[in-house]
Design goal:
Elements: H1 5-21, H2 27-46, H3 55-74, H4 82-88, H5 95-104, H6 107-117, H7 123-152, H8 154-161, H9 169-191
Helix pairs in contact: 1-3, 2-3, 2-8, 3-5, 5-9, 6-7, 6-9, 7-8, 7-9
C-alpha cells in the first residue's frame, strides 16, 4: 500500500479536480487558480520515475492541491466556510489564508529534494533554502495576484485578489506561507526522509 500511495493520491485528485471543475463561480478566475495546480500536478506525474518523493512529501503537497482546487471553484472569498468563521468569531472568510499556510508545507518536499539529490548536503542550509524558496514564492504570488487583479479589473480581479477589504492581506498571506513552511520543516526534521 505504501508504494501505491502516490498513484492512489493522483487518481483521487483527478476525480476530485474533475468534480470541482464543473460549473465554477467564475470560469476566468477558475482558470487563473487552476493553471498552477494543473501544471504542478503534471510536473509531479512526469518526474515521478526520475525522482520519487517520500509518501509524507506527497501527502503534504496534496493538501495544497486539494484545498486550492476547492478555492478555485468558488473563488477563495466565496467558499462556504461559515461554520469555521463563526466557530472562531472571525469577521472574514479565512479559507484563503489556510490555503496560503498549506502552500508553505511544500518546504518539506523542497528540503527533501535538495538533500536526497545531494544538491545541498548540510541540514541548516537545506532548511534555509527551503524556507526562503517558499517565502520567495509567496512574494511572487502576491505580485502575480496584484498584476492579474489590475489587468482583469472589476469583480473578476477582486475575486482573484481575494483581499476582502483587508489592506494588509498580502502581508498576512505571506506570513501564513512562512508559518506553513516552518511547519513543513519541523516535520522534515522529525521524519528525516534524507536518511
Amino acid at each position: 500500500m505504501a508504494n501505491r500511495l502516490p498513484t492512489l493520491l493522483a487518481l483521487v485528485f483527478i476525480l476530485f479536480w474533475a468534480f470541482w471543475a464543473v460549473d465554477p463561480y467564475d470560469r476566468a478566475v477558475w482558470w487563473a487558480e487552476n493553471l498552477p495546480v494543473i501544471g504542478i500536478f503534471l510536473l509531479l506525474v512526469l518526474t515521478y520515475r526520475v525522482f520519487r518523493f517520500s509518501n509524507t512529501a506527497y501527502l503534504l503537497m496534496a493538501v495544497w492541491m486539494f484545498w486550492h482546487t476547492v478555492g478555485g471553484h468558488y473563488t477563495f472569498e466565496r467558499v462556504p466556510f461559515d461554520g469555521v468563521t463563526d466557530l472562531f468569531g472571525w469577521e472574514r472568510n479565512h479559507f484563503d489564508r489556510i490555503g496560503h499556510y498549506t502552500i508553505g508545507l511544500w518546504s518539506y518536499p523542497v528540503a527533501e529534494l535538495m538533500r536526497r539529490r545531494g544538491w545541498i548536503t548540510r541540514t541548516v542550509p537545506v532548511l534555509l533554502f527551503a524556507l526562503f524558496s517558499i517565502m520567495a514564492l509567496a512574494a511572487a504570488y502576491e505580485i502575480i495576484e496584484w498584476w492579474f487583479a489590475a489587468l482583469q479589473g472589476g469583480e473578476e480581479g477582486a475575486s482573484f485578489l481575494g483581499s476582502q477589504g483587508d489592506v494588509w492581506d498580502a502581508q498576512k498571506d505571506m506570513l501564513l506561507d512562512t508559518l506553513g513552511a516552518l511547519t513543513g520543516l519541523a516535520i522534515f526534521l522529525i521524519k528525516r526522509p534524507d536518511r
